[in-house]
Design brief:
The protein has 295 residues and is of the alpha/beta class. It has a domain of 202 residues: 3-Layer(aba) Sandwich (Rossmann fold), CATH 3.40.50. The chain is 37% helix and 17% strand. It has 10 helices and 13 strands. Keywords: NAD. This is NAD(P)-dependent oxidoreductase. It holds the Pfam family Epimerase.
Length: 295
């Protein structure tokens, strides 16, 4: 696990699965950790964990001074077609922060579009094929415009599917929602939530404003392989293999299968010194189950 950066104040826009995991990770080393969520109920739950949580949505802007003292800022709020919601509301406040040392924007590998199963590194052109990917590309460009114009220390992290306890094939198997959809030649990349946190912390330790990082594990593979392994770990029968053409997926799920690529993680290893705890889904799922059984 990379050493935590010198303590400061982390502010996370969008305390969802990824940002909350990072926030919890930095609480112990003595950081001040704050951020936003969309409801008062979630804000109360986060405050009970020691995170200074604020409600932020189109109907409830942040109070003046909320960002004061922020040294590190993470944005994981999904954009609209027009771009980043945080920047739409708070660009002047963010640009004016005097002690900002690091900004992380959580984007998606969807900005690369379809590569027919080929490997993709950070030098690949941005060619999003979905509306979701196009919106992320717009938001990335907006953050980089602030980097270029104001020297904002922006780092872009392009993420594939994120999994971990509470959001894994093990949880889907138990809930009865796991599916094995078979599309010939289709592979997906993924990253465990712990290893995503390690990459973010490593970047905080070695800021390189303007940098792009793919954060993925070593083993892109077909989605049915992951579900089959989760079923094996649980001693359950895997769900039947369903041909893609017969799967009757939602429009969003169908769009994921329209992109086929393998994400290279060479840069986070070479530049940030990241060592993955979970180089594939096998280690990630096995460790999750072992930890559950120890409780």
């Amino acid at each position: 696990m990379p050493q935590s950066p010198t303590p400061g104040r982390l502010f996370c826009f969008g305390l969802g699965f990824s940002a909350t995991a990072l926030a919890r990770r930095l609480l112990d080393p003595g950081w001040q950790v704050a951020g936003t969520c969309r409801t008062a109920e979630k804000a109360a739950a986060l405050r009970a964990q020691g995170i200074e949580a604020h409600v932020f949505n189109p109907d409830q802007p942040l109070e003046r001074g909320t960002l004061a003292g922020t040294t590190h800022l993470l944005d994981s709020v999904p954009p609209t077609a027009e771009g980043d919601r945080v920047l739409a509301a708070l660009t002047p406040d963010i640009v004016a922060l005097p002690n900002l040392r690091w900004v992380g924007y959580l984007s998606t590998t969807g900005v690369y579009g379809n590569k027919d199963g080929g490997w993709v590194d950070e030098s690949a052109p941005v060619q999003p094929a979905t509306e979701r990917g196009k919106a992320r590309a717009v938001a990335e460009a907006q953050w980089m415009a602030l980097h270029d114009a104001h020297g904002l220390p922006v780092h872009r992290f392009r993420l594939p599917g994120i999994y971990g306890p509470g959001r894994s094939a093990l949880d889907q198997m138990r809930a009865g929602t796991a599916r094995r959809v078979d599309k010939k030649g289709q592979v997906f990349s993924r990253i465990h939530i712990h290893d995503l946190g390690s990459a973010l912390v490593a970047s905080m330790n070695r800021p390189n404003p303007g940098a792009i990082y793919n954060v993925a594990d070593d083993h892109p593979c077909p989605s049915p392989d992951v579900v089959t392994y989760a079923a094996e770990l649980l001693g359950l029968e895997p769900p039947p293999l369903v041909p893609f053409e017969q799967a009757e997926l939602s429009p969003m799920a169908t769009s994921f299968y329209g992109e086929n690529k393998r994400i290279s993680n060479a840069r986070i290893k070479a530049e940030l010194g990241v060592t993955l705890r979970y180089p594939s889904y096998r280690e990630g799922l096995a460790d999750q189950l072992a930890a559950e059984r120890q409780v």
